[in-house]
C-alpha cells in the first residue's frame, strides 16, 4: 500500500503522499460566453442522469426566450452553485455543444488537469453535500470565487485519466445493473396494475363480466376548504407524500412544518384522497386519519366499498382514461371534478366486492414484497457506486 498523507481536506482525509493539494482556482477556471440570439441550438439541462439535451416538448417551466443563454462546450464541467441544499445534482460533465441557463457555472480545466477525474471528484462531494456547511447564505449558494479558494487533490495527470477511465467502466456496469433492476420493478408494477384491472373487469375466476358505471355515481368529491388557521394541529398530506400506483402513504407533515396554511381541504379517516395534479401518476390513498390535504387534492367519499374503489382508481382502465384526458395538458396536467366524475369504473356486485378486495390485498402484497426487495437492491447498488467513487478519487484504492 502506498504511503498516505493528511490532505487537509475534511471530506478527503488521507490521500497518496505524492498527490498535490491545490486551490480550485489553480485547477479550473470559469467560462461564460453568452449566445445573444438563440438559433435552435440544443438546450442542455443538468440532471441526475448528467448534462442532457432537454426535450422542449415535454413541458415544465420554460422561459419566454432562450436569447441570452450561455454556450456550453464539450469536456467542461457544469455546476449548480445555488440552492445547494435542495438541488438533486450540482455537477455534470458536458459532452456536447449546446446552451444552458446563465445561472449555472461552467468551468474548463487549467494546467492540463483532466475533466473526467474532477467530474467524479465533485460527484463524490455532491453525493454527501460535503460543501453545504460552507454555504451560509439563505440560498445556500457559492460564488465562483469562493469555490476557487476551496482545496482539492491533484493526482499526476496519468492517474487522473486512469481513475476516470476505471470509474467510467465500473459506474457503467453498475448503471446497467441498476437499469435492469429498475426495468424489473417497472414490469412488476405493470403486472400489479394488470391483475387489478382484470379482476375488477372479470372477477377472481375470470368468468364474470362486471358492468361499467361512471365514477360520479359511486363516489362524491368533498371539497371542504378550511380557514387558514383552522385545525393547525391536523396532519397534512400533499401529492408528494403518496407513492404512485400503490395506494400507500409515504409520510405526512403538519401545517407548521409545511408552511402551507391556506387552501387546505379537510378530510376524514376512511375517505379516499386523490391528486388532481398529474393524476396519471396515480396518487391515491384511503386516509388513515382525519387531516388536511393540499388544494391540489380531492377528498372523496365512496358510495361503495372504499378499498374496492381505491383498487379501481389504481387499475389500468382508470389510468388510461385519465391519461387520455391529460394528453394535451403538458403545462398544467390537472383533472377537474366533472372529468373525474365521467371516468368509467368496473363495478362488481356488493357481495363480490369484499372478496375481490381480500384477493387483491393478498396478490398485491406478494408483488409489493418482491418490488421492495428489488428496491433494496437498488439502494445497495447506489451506495456501492458512491463508495467506489470515493475510494478512487481520494486515492484509497490504487489504479496504477
- Tally of individual helices: 8
The biggest sheet, with number of strands, parallel, antiparallel or mixed sense and barrel status, is: 4 strands, antiparallel
Q: CATH top level of the largest domain?
A: Alpha Beta
Q: Which architecture of the largest domain per CATH?
A: Alpha-Beta Complex
Shape: elongated
State the end-to-end distance: 12 Å
What is the β-strand count?
A: 23
Beta-strand percentage range? 15-25%
What's the CATH H-level homologous superfamily of the largest domain?
DNA methylase specificity domains
Radius of gyration: 26 Å
Structural class: alpha+beta
Low-confidence region ranges: none
Overall description:
This protein is of the alpha+beta class and 400 residues long. It folds into 2 domains: 152 residues, Adenine-n6-DNA-methyltransferase TaqI, Chain A, domain 2, CATH 3.90.220.20; 137 residues, DNA methylase specificity domains (Adenine-n6-DNA-methyltransferase TaqI, Chain A, domain 2, Alpha-Beta Complex). It contains 8 helices and 23 strands. Strands 4-12-9-10 form a 4-stranded antiparallel beta sheet, with helices on one face. It has a 4-stranded antiparallel beta sheet with strand order 15-22-19-20, covered by helices on one side. The protein has a 4-stranded mixed beta sheet with strand order 17-16-21-18. It is elongated and about 75 Å long. The mean pLDDT is 90.
Amino acid at each position: 500500500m502506498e504511503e498516505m498523507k493528511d490532505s487537509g481536506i475534511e471530506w478527503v482525509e488521507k490521500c497518496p503522499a505524492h498527490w498535490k493539494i491545490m486551490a480550485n482556482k489553480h485547477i479550473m477556471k470559469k467560462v461564460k460566453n453568452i449566445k445573444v440570439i438563440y438559433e435552435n441550438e440544443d438546450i442542455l439541462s443538468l440532471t441526475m442522469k448528467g448534462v442532457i439535451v432537454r426535450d422542449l416538448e415535454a413541458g415544465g417551466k420554460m422561459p419566454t426566450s432562450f436569447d441570452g443563454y450561455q454556450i456550453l462546450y464539450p469536456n467542461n464541467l457544469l455546476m449548480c452553485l445555488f440552492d445547494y441544499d435542495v438541488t438533486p445534482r450540482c455537477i455534470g460533465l458536458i459532452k456536447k455543444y449546446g446552451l444552458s441557463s446563465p445561472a449555472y457555472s461552467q468551468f474548463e480545466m487549467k494546467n492540463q488537469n483532466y475533466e473526467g477525474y474532477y467530474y467524479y471528484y465533485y460527484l463524490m462531494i455532491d453525493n454527501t453535500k460535503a460543501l453545504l456547511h460552507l454555504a451560509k447564505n439563505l440560498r445556500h449558494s457559492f460564488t465562483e470565487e469562493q469555490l476557487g479558494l476551496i482545496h482539492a487533490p491533484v493526482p499526476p495527470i496519468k492517474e487522473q485519466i486512469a481513475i476516470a477511465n476505471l470509474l467510467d467502466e465500473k459506474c457503467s456496469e453498475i448503471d446497467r445493473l441498476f437499469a435492469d433492476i429498475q426495468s424489473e420493478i417497472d414490469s412488476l408494477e405493470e403486472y400489479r396494475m394488470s391483475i387489478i384491472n382484470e379482476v375488477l373487469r372479470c372477477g377472481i375466476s375470470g368468468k364474470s363480466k362486471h358492468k361499467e358505471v361512471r365514477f360520479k355515481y359511486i363516489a362524491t368529491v368533498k371539497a371542504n376548504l378550511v380557514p387558514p388557521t383552522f385545525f393547525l394541529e391536523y396532519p397534512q398530506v400533499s401529492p408528494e407524500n403518496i407513492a404512485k400506483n400503490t395506494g400507500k402513504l409515504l409520510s405526512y407533515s403538519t401545517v407548521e412544518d409545511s408552511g402551507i396554511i391556506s387552501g387546505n381541504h379537510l378530510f376524514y379517516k376512511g375517505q379516499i384522497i386523490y391528486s388532481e395534479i398529474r393524476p396519471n401518476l396515480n396518487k391515491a390513498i384511503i386516509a388513515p386519519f382525519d387531516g388536511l390535504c393540499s388544494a391540489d387534492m380531492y377528498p372523496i367519499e365512496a358510495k361503495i366499498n372504499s378499498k374496492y374503489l381505491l383498487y379501481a382508481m389504481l387499475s389500468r382502465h382508470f389510468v388510461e382514461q385519465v391519461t387520455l384526458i391529460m394528453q394535451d395538458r403538458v403545462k398544467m396536467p390537472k383533472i377537474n371534478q366533472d372529468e373525474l366524475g365521467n371516468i368509467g369504473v368496473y363495478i362488481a356486485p356488493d357481495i363480490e366486492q369484499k372478496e375481490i378486495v381480500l384477493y387483491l390485498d393478498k396478490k398485491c402484497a406478494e408483488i409489493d414484497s418482491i418490488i421492495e426487495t428489488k428496491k433494496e437492491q437498488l439502494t445497495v447498488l447506489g451506495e456501492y457506486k458512491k463508495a467506489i467513487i470515493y475510494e478512487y478519487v481520494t486515492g484509497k484504492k490504487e489504479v496504477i
